[in-house]
Amino acid sequence: MSCPSAGKAVGSGEGLIHSTGLQKPSSFQLDQLRRRRCVPAELFFLLRSQPVAKMPRVTVTRRLRFNAAHRVFNPAFSDAQNEATFGKCNNPNWHGHNYVLEVSVEGDIDEATGYVLDLARLRDIAEARIIDKVDHKNFNLDVAFMKGIIPTAENIVVQFWRILEPAVAPARLTKLVLRETENNYVEYTGN
Ligand SMILES: [Zn+2]
Question: Which helix (H) or strand (E) covers residue 105, if one does?
Answer without folding.
Answer: strand 95-108
